[in-house]
Amino acid sequence: MKWLDDILGKEWEIKPAGGATGEAYFAQSHNEKLFLKRNSSPFLAVLSAEGIVPKLIWTKRLENGDVVTAQRWMDGHELKANDMTSHRVAQLLSKIHRSTDLLNMLKRLGKQPMHPTEMCEHAIQATQLYGNDILVRTSIDYLSARVEKVQLHVEKVVCHGDVNHNNWLMSAAEELYLIDWEGAVVADPALDIGMILHWYVPQEEWTTWLAHYGEELTPDLEERMKWYVVYQSVVSMVWHRGRNETREERHWTHILKTLLVQLHLIQ
């Protein structure tokens, strides 16, 4: 971590913070706290400007071309599962989905809109080793049979792609943030909405939650949400199976089986 010492100086205490991509660290000097990351996406600056992630303090380029970003280190907590029914979650997600600045930046970074036909093909490829699994076979049949129905034109927006409760932070000052944007895509907003409603919000509360988001619960939206949740669930299940991550695989197997029962595709 010599490069961090060179940037910050010896008076900073630096600890690894994990992270799926790049290198992430916590740094503290007296009362000042920073979250540092190497090679974050340029998308981070727009997210910070929109108040969606903790404030970006500075950006520095290293001699080797790598870029280091420093964000305000938030004292606070991750949301719990039952916090996800909050109108604030719905409103922040709505702000994200309706942001033209976020959409324009992702497009400038080369992100092309994701279409259901491409996602269906991805699911088929990702699950081809598990064709004898009844959950996999039923899911692929469902996705293939309905892909044209959800393919109908829907305005594509910036979607986070992994809106589980661990990625939502509430600061000590009651500021709500959505972090970990490495998997951001341009897609149907039902991709994010479906995950939250199916995972966290009782069905009888969907209409109220969506009202805070600014949308009505229509048969079309329901159809699209179900399609995307089945897609995400079957792909996640086989991904963890391939990595021998039994606990995570079991989690997604339960979610997928519950969905397919609700859709009356299995008993």
UniProtKB/TrEMBL annotation:
<feature type="domain" description="Aminoglycoside phosphotransferase">
    <location>
        <begin position="17"/>
        <end position="227"/>
    </location>
</feature>
<keyword id="KW-0418">Kinase</keyword>
<dbReference type="InterPro" id="IPR052077">
    <property type="entry name" value="CcrZ_PhaseVar_Mediator"/>
</dbReference>
<dbReference type="InterPro" id="IPR002575">
    <property type="entry name" value="Aminoglycoside_PTrfase"/>
</dbReference>
<dbReference type="GO" id="GO:0016301">
    <property type="term" value="F:kinase activity"/>
</dbReference>
<dbReference type="Pfam" id="PF01636">
    <property type="entry name" value="APH"/>
</dbReference>
<protein>
    <submittedName>
        <fullName>Thiamine kinase-like enzyme</fullName>
    </submittedName>
</protein>
<keyword id="KW-0808">Transferase</keyword>
<dbReference type="InterPro" id="IPR011009">
    <property type="entry name" value="Kinase-like_dom_sf"/>
</dbReference>
